[in-house]
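Objective 1b of the project was to move from sequence-level analysis to a structural picture of ligand recognition. The entry below was assembled by the postdoctoral researcher (A.K.) and checked by the PI before modelling. It contains the amino acid sequence of the target and the SMILES of the bound compound, S-adenosylmethionine.
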Amino acid sequence: MNYNSGFVNEVLANFHASFLGDKDRWCAIAGLGPEGDTYRKKAYQKLYVLRYFPAYYLEYCILAEALRRRLGSDCQGIKVASFGCGICTDYFALKDNLNGIPFEYDGYDRCEWSTQELIPKLNDSDFSFNFFNTDDFELGDLDDVDVFVFPKSIGDIEAGGDLEHLSEVIASTKKNRVFFLNSYVSNGTDVKSVNAGYFNRVHGALVAKGFKTEDKVGSTTWNGERFGDGLRKICWDFFYPSEYLVKCADQGSMEKCSSCGVVKLPVMTNKFMEYQILEYVRK
Ligand SMILES: C[S@@+](CC[C@H](N)C(=O)[O-])C[C@H]1O[C@@H](n2cnc3c(N)ncnc32)[C@H](O)[C@@H]1O
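Corresponding predicted holo structure:
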C-alpha cells in the first residue's frame, strides 16, 4: 500500500497556511460538526481537511489496494463514481494505489468544495468533480460505472433522504460485476456504526436485480492489532507534522474555549476507521 506522505504534507501545508488567514472566523465555526450545510463554509472545509484528510486518505489507500488486488493484473481499466466525494480524497488514494490500472473518476458532491483550489495538481484528464446532488441522478446515468465509492458519505446521503433513489439508479446498471468501496463515519468505538447499516438499501436493490455477493455485507473492519492503535503503527509513512496542528493564541480566554472544535486534534488513531469492500456479480 502506498501512502504518499509528500503529497499529504503539501495538502496540509496549503490548508494550514490558508486557515491561519481565517482567524477571524475560527470562533464562528468552533462549534460546528461535519454535517448538513456546514461543508459549504470555506473556513470549515479547511478545518475539516486539516483534521481528517491524512487519516481518511490512509483508509482509502487501504481500500484502493484491496480493489487493485481484486481487479487483477489483466484489468484494462475501470470507471469510478464517488458519492459525497468532498475534496476527493479517495481519488488521490486510487491514483496512488491502482498501480497503473487506468481509471476514470467522477466525484459527486452537493456542496461545491471550492477549497479544492488549494490541492496541488488537480487537473488530471481522468478526474472530474461534479457539483451535483445524488438525488438528481436518472436511471441509466451510472450504467458504465464499475466501482462505486461511499467515502464517509452514506450517512449524510441517507440523512438528506434519497438513498433509496440512488440505490435504484445504481442497481439499474448494465454491468454484471460491480464493486463498492464503503468507508463509514465511525462512532469512535469498535461497535459497528449505524452508518454501515444504511448500505442495506443498496444491497437490497442489487439483489432484486439478480446480483449476489460473497463478501460480508453486514461486517466492517479497521486495521491494526488493537482498536485505538496509532495510524503510524499501522502505516509507518503516516506522519502528521506538528507545525500543521492548529494553535490559537486566545485559547482559554473565553468560556466557550472549553469545547472548541478548532484546536481539537486531528484523527491520529484507527478509532475512526471503518470500511468494507464488496464485490457483486450476476450471471
Ligand atoms: C463526511 S463528508 C465526506 C467527504 C469526503 N468524501 C471525505 O472523505 O472527507 C460527506 C459529504 O457528502 C456530501 N453529501 C451529502 N449528501 C449528498 C448528496 N445527496 N449528494 C451529493 N453529496 C452529498 C456532503 O456535502 C459532504 O461533502
